[in-house]
Amino acid sequence: MRVLNKQKLEKDIRALFRTVNAGQGTQVNEEKFIIELSRLLEENELRSPIQGTSSMSVMIADLRGFTYMLEKFRSDDIINILNEFFARMVSIIDTHGGQINKFMGDSIIAYFDTGEVPQASVLNVLHCAIEMQLAMDAVNVISARMGLDSLYIGIGIDTGDVVASVLGSDIYREFTMIGSTVNLASRIEAYTLRGQILMSENTWKHVANLVETGQVNEVGAKGMSKPLRFYELMAINTPQRIALPKRDNRKAPRIKVSIPVYFQLLDGKNILPEVYEGEVVDISYGGMLFVTPKAIEKFADLKVSIGLSPYANDPVDIYERPSMCKSWTRGWKSDLNSPSLMMPPAPMSKSLSTV
To answer: Given the DSSP bridges, would you call strands 270-271 and 276-285 parallel, antiparallel or unpaired?
Structure first.
């Protein structure tokens, strides 16, 4: 069984096709063509094992809230918009010299060789990430035309050593990457909100003087001896300034409300038994602001139970991470930008007022 670098092989075959066509009227020597094609197949075969490690930037891009869309729309529409999404993202990654490692559901894992000039390579990866976010506007035009919700991606990036190899058996095998760089990119991506690009400190160090970033984020991560630090990419200043498009995660109008909310902290996949009470003070199409007597750690995993409508008999459970927690006159205020809230507004009582 042969495992081929499909992305590179397609490029090489296209180049061979152009070479053959350049003959224009001359008879193509079939034997030479077969020999050349066999050479390309041989060159693009991924053999195992690949010795040693390579320095790479690993990028993981994931659609936010896509699971909710699976429950709401027809499967053929979901497949069509996914193919549109993947086609545009892969084209951008390929243009920037990246390689697709695999698709995992609605996620893309890609890698970029750091090469001899890490700064230039990392800068190229960040340019790629911003272009991917910009391309989501075109994806959403098509999504709207199909009657679907808007799509948003979160992108996580880490740079470091990666072990790359073909793993498996004669029945099934594939090219894959393993190592702490892959794991860290995955963890960082999990903290992204819609439209965000987050990079590790390892990545940021290569381009610190060339990019604009938001507030430094630090979170405690299970299995890590020190807090995980990552940076939100806002803009790149060279060779020309290119900024990340701002996504409005909490869509207007915002409605003042007073709705009880209950939440529990998660430890991995386990829900801790202690239940805390709070109050939702405003809600919008896709987000809410709530107040609690207890400070909640930024990006903490929460199970939140809330009645989204006074007409609902059962509360809705939301699993999300607050993107901020600030001291307030009535305790602590936190926000949730939840795709689970992206539904047509339910009827609200007359006591509610628009802000």
So the answer is: unpaired
Q: What are phi and psi of 98, to 5 degrees?
A: -85, 160
CA distances from residue 257 to 30, 44, 213 in whole angstroms, order as listed = 75, 60, 34
User: Per the CATH hierarchy, to which homologous superfamily does domain 54-243 belong?
Assistant: Nucleotide cyclase, GGDEF domain (3.30.70.1230)
Strands (E), the chain: 54-63, 99-104, 107-113, 153-168, 173-178, 197-200, 211-213, 217-219, 228-236, 242-243, 251-267, 270-271, 276-285, 287-292, 302-306, 316-320, 325-328, 331-336, 353-354
Spatial distance between the Cα atoms of 12 and 263, rounded to a whole number of angstroms: 55
The CATH number of the structural domain formed by 251-354 is 2.40.10.220
Peptide bond just before 239 cis, omega within 30 deg: yes
125-to-103, 119, 130, 152, 240 alpha-carbon distances in Å: 18, 10, 9, 19, 15
Which residue, 288, 275, 282, is CA-closest to 323? 288
* pLDDT (tens digit per residue) in 156-172: 999 999 988 777 777 77
Domain range list for the chain: 6-43, 54-243, 251-354
Q: Which two tokens stand for residue 295?
A: 């400070």
Q: pLDDT of 53-87, one tens digit each? A: 889 999 999 998 777 788 788 889 999 999 999 99
Helix (H) or strand (E) holding 125: helix 118-145
